[in-house]
Amino acid sequence: MPPTTPSELRHVRIQATGPTARLEVDGHDIADQVASYQLQHTAGQPPELLLLLRPTADPVWEGAARVVVGADPDPGPAAAAFLAALDPAETERAVLDRHDLQDGGPHEFVRALLLQLTEWALGKRQPGELEKVAG
């Protein structure tokens, strides 16, 4: 891609289809080089596209970029808030009702509890939501 100056805008096309997207910059498909992207648009300003590259991306990129340096947030406070919000009785009932997680093996209840909490944290099943029965 030719160099970009801050005053120069690039043609960008994003075609998102479910969990995947086609990303083009100046007609060049770059989706296979991008791990994630963020599109931000403030009224009166040109849109800003932030591309987070895959480790396998082409090492040669040219153009102007805004550089942001930061660290991943500490997950501890979010995990603590999530656990503190749970009702102990409802959590116990949910785990005991999950027959698909009970196999009679060592530490069965704790393994089932951790899997249940993981599903809730990922939004796969909400507290109080019953397991769907096939048939």
TrEMBL record:
Q: From which source organism is this entry?
A: Kitasatospora gansuensis
Q: What is this protein called?
A: Uncharacterized protein
Task: Report the domain of life of the source organism.
Answer: Bacteria
